[in-house]
């Protein structure tokens, strides 16, 4: 069976993407730092007839993330699709405007977003090169494309991730490996600020399948 590894799996986009691929016959590896939450997701997917397993790792711990992906590849006989979408809890986010941003304000976000993406890619890409096939999908905020002042320290890290993914897409052209960037410009689910448009994760997840199967786009921007 083909497999997808979801880095930063949670009950929103991660679960929706897992269902999108799992319902089409993919085994699902879920990677995040909270074992209890992962086990809950595995239970929900299993109840729907989807084969899934949890591989706990903090995405900021590069050795642990690498090992989790290696364990997932061993468990499922390889990783055909990598989806990278780590997101901190709202309460843990420190936001600064551009004029009040220090280098350290950006560095933490860069390590969290770009550093983990590079680590995850390095863990799965050699086997994809050997197979001549694979898909690498990276989820990001739309501030990576059109920044807003309240995210003055987050947007530079998001833009760095986007730049790296688009460049990776160019590098991998003709190898059989697809790399693509997904920029989400809506609040996912309920409870967001009233001025920001909303969408359900289930409405966004199908575009990941499109990028995986159509294999001709470097980026999709979802705005509702």
Task: Label the overall shape.
Answer: globular
Separation of termini? 33 Å
Q: SS-based structural class?
A: alpha/beta
Give a quick account of the main beta sheet: strands, pairing sense, barrel closure. Answer: 7 strands, parallel
Number of strands: 9
Q: Determine the fraction of residues in helical runs and give it as a percent range.
A: 40-55%
What is the H/E string? Answer: EHEHEHEHEHEEEHHE
Q: What fraction strand? A: 15-25%
Query: What oligomeric state is this?
Result: single chain
Strand order of the largest sheet: 3-2-1-4-5-6-9
Average pLDDT reading: 93
Radius of gyration: 17 Å
Low-confidence parts: none
Quick take:
The protein has 224 residues and is an alpha/beta fold. It has helices at residues 13-22, 35-47, 62-76, 103-131, 154-171, 201-204, 206-214; strands spanning 3-7, 27-31, 52-54, 81-84, 134-141, 177-184, 187-188, 198-199, 219-222. The chain is built from 7 helices and 9 strands.
